[in-house]
Amino acid sequence: MPKHGLDVSACEVFRFYKLVTLKGLIEPISMIVPRRSETYQEDIYPMTPGTEPALTPDEWLSGVNRGKTMTVRAASSPSGPDRARGQGCTSLGKHPGVPRH
């Protein structure tokens, strides 16, 4: 999962999704590095491609080459108690129009 999908304020470094087939649920499981501070921890997150494009469409069409825009910080952190700590379950079959996380 890219860094912008993790809760960096909780030092989440990876997120697994456990399928509970008997109940039709997806349960997110977070891997969190224990830290005392809830501020951004630069030492556990590597440089990541940013969310801003390196080129405009006109630059790209004219043949300009440029490297990726890299960032250390996450673009945004997920909100809500379920996303923040990786707790709770998401139903698979009850809301077909809702995108799955």
Give the arrangement of secondary structure elements:
Elements: E1 12-20, E2 25-32, E3 48-49, H1 57-61, E4 70-71, H2 81-85, E5 90-91
Antiparallel strand pairs: 1-2, 2-5, 3-4
**What's the helix count?**
2
Characterize the main sheet.
3 strands, antiparallel
Task: Report helical residue fraction.
Answer: under 10%
Strand order of the largest sheet: 1-2-5
Query: Proportion of β residues?
Result: 15-25%
User: Any idea how many domains?
Assistant: 1
Give the number of DSSP strands: 5
Measured distance between first and last alpha carbons: 11 Å
- The gyration radius over C-alpha positions equals 17 Å
Which structural class do the helices and strands define? mainly beta
Instruction: Let me know the average pLDDT.
Output: 70
The ordered H/E elements are EEEHEHE
Residue runs with pLDDT of under 50 for 5 or more positions: 75-101
Mass-distribution shape:
flat
Description:
By secondary structure, this protein is mainly β. It has one domain (3-91). The protein is 10% helix and 23% strand. It contains two helices and five strands; from the N terminus they run E-E-E-H-E-H-E. The chain has helices at residues 57-61, 81-85; strands at residues 12-20, 25-32, 48-49, 70-71, 90-91. The strands form two sheets. The chain has a three-stranded antiparallel sheet, with no helix packed on it. The model is unreliable at 75-101 (pLDDT under 50). Pfam families: WD40_4 (PF16300). Residues 72-101 are annotated as: Disordered. GO terms for molecular function: actin filament binding. This is Coronin 6.
